[in-house]
Design brief:
Layout (H helix, E strand, L loop, with lengths): L7 H19 L7 H14 L7 H15 L6 H12 L10
């Protein structure tokens, strides 16, 4: 999908992920889980290329990213944007059981 056919949730997620990736790249401090955050952000960016991503995968990535950068106050706004973008996809369907 391109142009006006693109799901606005996907475009919003792509923009939020891009912003947080730039902020993380510009952040001068090294921290133990930086590579995890960078890898998960790259994975999230990749999911936005092929249509609507799977909600469980989005939520898993969000948890890993939040765990990796959650204590970095300089990244909190970007992380909040990613969380809001993921929330627009709703909850994953619950299995019967």
């Amino acid at each position: 999908m391109t142009g006006s056919d693109e799901d606005p949730r996907v475009a919003g997620l792509r923009a939020a992920v891009s912003r947080l990736r730039r902020e993380l790249a510009a952040h001068p401090a090294e921290f133990p889980d930086r590579a995890i955050a960078e890898d998960e952000l790259a994975a999230l960016a990749a999911t936005t290329v092929h249509g609507v991503p799977e909600v469980p995968r989005l939520r898993r990535s969000l948890l890993l990213i939040a765990g990796a950068v959650g204590s970095m106050s300089a990244l909190s706004d970007g992380l909040s944007d990613v969380r809001r973008a993921v929330d627009l996809f709703g909850e994953p369907p619950r299995g019967r059981g």
